[in-house]
Amino acid sequence: MSLFNKVLASVGIGAAKVDTKLHKSTYTLNENISGVVEIIGGSTEQQIDAIYLTLHTNFIREIDDKKIKDEAVLHKYKLNEPFTIQADEKRQIPFSFSLPPVVPVTTGNSRVWIQTGLDIKNAVDPKDKDFIEIQPTRLANGVLTAIQNMGFRLRKVDNEQAPSYLRRQTPIVQEFEFTPTNSTYRRYLDELEIVFLHQSPNSVEILVQVDRRARGLGGFLSEALDMDESFIRLTFSEHDNIQAKLEQVIKTKMK
After folding, report:
1. 123 vs 125: CA distance, rounded Å
2. CA 6 → CA 11, 39, 180, distances in Å?
3. How far is CA 187 from the centre of its chain?
4. % of the chain exceeding 70 in pLDDT
5. PANTHER family under this entry (predicted)?
6. With b meaning 16 or more CB within 10 Å and e meaning fewer, what string describes 76-112?
């Protein structure tokens, strides 16, 4: 019977199961994710080579001018050394790790989840998937609020493949796209796009893309040549007047 059970377990029947239990489901950047991984033995003993936790998000990749939905691994965490789980044994292993600074906020179509897997030799590896909510930091939320107070409406939020010069740091970037709603900005700008490059408890760094509205023949030629987009790199601390600083630099790009 034991040999038969081992054969069945190797194809996933009566094999060990895994269930990750998070201490909470909502986080902000720079927080630690913590919980326990519960492993329940199957109908026979099995060698667990590794338990790993991977942090995933969804994003859009462009290939030959086509937008393809994809998934990215933002962080991988190995939990333990090899051990044997006995039949019907229940074991809990606590864990804690920091959220990487590249994790996107879960708004719009953005999703973030933790996938837990058991690495079992010569067997189907059991997996578990847990979605979590990521909220912006206080400073990041201050930036987004300031832009809307200036007279912009958040039109969409997308996770996109990072440009080549950023891929060593992150596979994806999250882009917040705003459109002007008041006459001052609507006269000069088509849209405003924001990417958060780095966030810490005391500062936030952003890349702002200002897309100027075409004015006259020269303006239309600039749009056709993609010369109408200006980029601004800004860092804010907790003592900054975020809205005033944004207004000042954006207005210089409107001239």
Report:
1. 6
2. 9, 17, 64
3. 34
4. 84
5. SPORULATION-CONTROL PROTEIN SPO0M
6. ebeeeeeeebeeeeebeeebeeebeebbbbbbbebbb
CATH class of residue range 15-135: mainly beta
Q: What is the mean pLDDT of residues 75-98?
A: 89
Q: Distance between CA 117 and CA 105 in Å, rounded?
A: 24
**Per the structure block, which two tokens stand in for 194?**
């924001």
Distances (CA, A) of 79 to 34, 84, 92, 97: 12, 15, 12, 10
Residues 204 and 238: their CA atoms lie apart, in Å, by 9
CB atoms within 10 A of CB 149: 12
Task: State pTM to two decimals.
Answer: 0.81
pLDDT at 6: 39
> Strand 66-78 to strand 152-161: parallel, antiparallel, or no bridges (unpaired)?
unpaired
- Tell how strand 32-40 and strand 46-63 pair up: unpaired
Other C-beta atoms lying within 10 Å of the C-beta of residue 193:
17
